[in-house]
Amino acid sequence: MTILVGSTNITDIQIGSTAINSVYVGANKVWDRGPAALDTQTVTVGLDTAGTLSLYGFDRAIWIHGSITDGTCNFKSGALYDAIDSMYNSNGGTMTTILYINGSQTNADWTTMTIAGYAYQRTDATYTQGSVTSWTWQVVSTVSAMGTTVGATKTVVFT
């Protein structure tokens, strides 16, 4: 739901220091703040390449590149994020968005990962549990949620 003032989409409504969660016109809800963030991270985009693969984002474990603030996952008891990446494979034109969290993690506790406006649903991911747990989303595309500018910052929000 959106509220527009002119052509500006209103994303936050407050009265003084009190956040407003919903706005109604009569009995009709016309705006909702949405779910509260479980965790927010800032990724400084790095790049690593190997053959036909280009990885943009952050990886501390395998393809060392980029950085993250603060790097601990609030909804997984402070486990470390090992990677939040967009991986382009020029052989086939696929883009895979990657989330790695250290340790054996359950496929629960969060619903959506949003990177710079691109929303990834947990239930749409390929989930693999092990010493590092992964969620991956693959599409035929050249569009990277992380973009292609090394050094850019991207906000990653989990709800």
Give a structural overview.
The protein folds into 2 domains: 3-32, no CATH class; 39-158, no CATH class. Helices cover 0% and strands 55% of the residues. It contains no helices and 18 strands. It has strands at residues 3-5, 8-10, 14-15, 18-19, 22-25, 28-32, 39-44, 46-50, 53-59, 67-69, 72-73, 79-89, 94-102, 112-115, 118-121, 126-128, 132-140, 153-158. Strand 3 (14-15) and strand 4 form a beta hairpin. The protein is globular, with a radius of gyration of 18 Å. The two termini are 17 Å apart. The model has no long low-confidence stretch (mean pLDDT 92).
**Oligomeric form of this entry?**
single chain
Structural class, please? Answer: mainly beta
List unreliable stretches of 5+ residues.
Answer: none
Helix count, DSSP H or I runs of 4 or more residues: 0
What is the average per-residue confidence, as pLDDT, rounded to a whole number?
92
Over the alpha carbons, how many angstroms does the gyration radius reach? 18 Å
Q: Could you describe the largest sheet, including whether it forms a barrel?
A: 7 strands, antiparallel
Q: How much of the sequence is in beta strands? A: over 45%
End-to-end CA span: 17 Å
What is the string of helix and strand elements?
EEEEEEEEEEEEEEEEEE
Give the overall form. globular
Number of domains: 2
